[in-house]
Structure to design on (399 residues):
């Protein structure tokens, strides 16, 4: 949908593997740490990936980005 | 954030160490940490014949990769647990990893060797799948190691696993389990092979970061029985604490090993004999593994009888040592 400025409205695509795959879209740029907080995910147990890069918590994510959030935790009794 | 070593943009931040690294220096850091753990805890030397228990998950494949890069020559052992598509994919991932690196891998199929896979075993025992599964994995890794001349078994347990197990054992005051919880279990019987956990000081997030950066193709799915496992609850609680107080998990585990475990281990000295049935070490007359199968096979009779020796199937080059 065109915005009032006539620009395509971009949304950031977030793929969550927790480990079940889930996809959602978010508006607005934000830092990795903020994204995780909004999703209710603990940064101690999740890794955020963009393309081939792992991202630190202070990294800025843009509206044009596609990012993947991978849960690090597995259960069971080894 | 910048890499502490080269000043380039960092990929991994390690709050508990108050530092951050780029991809290249993170991989280097991780491998060095594991090497230090192996040496400090006298786990093994390059002369040892190492059997790595590999499930196809991120921890065990990471361990295999790191050991190779550190110059060790470990052989893999995969146990097919008979948990439907999950087990098939786990074995496929493990074999693909071994093939891509030209590694030798041994495979034991629980159902073929003993007559029941983990789901049927759980049903027969009327217990949660993890209990029969965990016991079977420990027993089979030890036997395969013993019967094939390995001097040490390495497993991929990480800091989160160790902290969660410790918390569980503390909450239930499982003093015998506490006495035995250690990153190094020496072979205190001729039929026991030493067991070590070289990743026990690396967090689960650090391990997954390593696996992703090295592009290790691990099985992303969880075992269907892991859902709702207590260990997940404990890990979650511990990571909440870690978030507010970085370093807590390591403090918990290291403190336990330093201060409490020596006392418990002293009190727990039990005489280890041999199982009347299979000859494996036990503190009883018949070992827990044989007792478990007796119980299971009473309810679900099968034609396979546990053999005197396990003959794992070899995949890839066999190790000449
Ligand atoms: S979650 Fe339980 S049943 Fe599944 S592999 Fe782990 S120990 Fe076995
Ligand atoms: Zn660097
Ligand atoms: Zn026995």
């Amino acid at each position: 949908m065109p915005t009032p400025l006539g620009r395509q409205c971009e949304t950031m695509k977030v793929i969550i593997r927790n480990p079940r795959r889930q996809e959602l879209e978010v508006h607005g740029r934000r830092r990795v740490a903020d994204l995780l907080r909004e999703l209710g995910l603990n940064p101690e147990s999740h890794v955020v990936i963009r393309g081939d890069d792992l991202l630190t918590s202070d990294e800025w994510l843009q509206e044009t980005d596609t990012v993947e959030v991978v849960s690090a935790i597995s259960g069971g009794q080894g | 954030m910048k890499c502490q070593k080269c000043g380039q943009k960092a990929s991994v931040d390690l709050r508990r160490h108050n530092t951050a690294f780029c991809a290249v220096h993170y991989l280097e850091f991780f491998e060095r940490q594991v090497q230090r753990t192996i040496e400090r805890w006298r786990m093994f030397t390059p002369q040892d014949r190492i059997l790595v228990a590999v499930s196809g998950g991120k921890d065990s494949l990471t361990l295999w990769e790191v050991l190779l890069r550190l110059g060790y020559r470990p052989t893999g052992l995969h146990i097919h647990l008979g948990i439907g598509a999950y087990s098939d994919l786990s074995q496929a991932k493990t074999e693909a990893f071994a093939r891509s690196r030209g590694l030798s891998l041994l495979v034991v199929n629980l159902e073929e060797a003993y007559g029941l896979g983990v789901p049927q075993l759980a049903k027969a025992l009327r217990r949660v799948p993890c209990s029969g599964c965990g016991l079977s994995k420990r027993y089979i890794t030890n036997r395969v190691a013993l019967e094939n001349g390995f001097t040490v078994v390495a497993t991929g347990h990480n800091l989160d696993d160790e902290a969660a197990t410790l918390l569980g054992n503390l909450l239930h005051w499982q003093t015998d389990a506490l006495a035995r919880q250690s990153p190094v279990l020496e072979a205190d019987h001729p039929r026991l092979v030493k067991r070590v956990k070289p990743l026990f000081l690396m967090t689960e997030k650090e391990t997954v970061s390593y696996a992703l950066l090295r592009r290790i193709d691990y099985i992303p799915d969880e075992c269907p029985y892991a859902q709702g496992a207590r260990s997940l609850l404990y890990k979650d609680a511990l990571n909440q604490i870690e978030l507010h107080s970085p370093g807590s998990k390591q403090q918990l585990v290291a403190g336990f090993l330093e201060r409490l475990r020596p006392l418990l281990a002293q009190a727990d000295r039990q005489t280890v004999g041999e199982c009347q049935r299979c000859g494996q070490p036990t503190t009883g007359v018949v070992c827990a593994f044989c007792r478990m199968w007796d119980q299971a096979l009473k309810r679900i009779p099968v034609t396979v009888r546990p053999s005197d020796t396990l003959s794992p199937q070899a995949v890839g080059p066999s190790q000449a040592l």
The pocket of iron/sulfur cluster (ligand 1) is lined by residues A 76-77; B 81, 118, 129-130, 133-134, 223, 225-226 (CB under 6 Å). The longest strand of chain B covers residues 75-80. The longest helix of chain B spans residues 248-267.
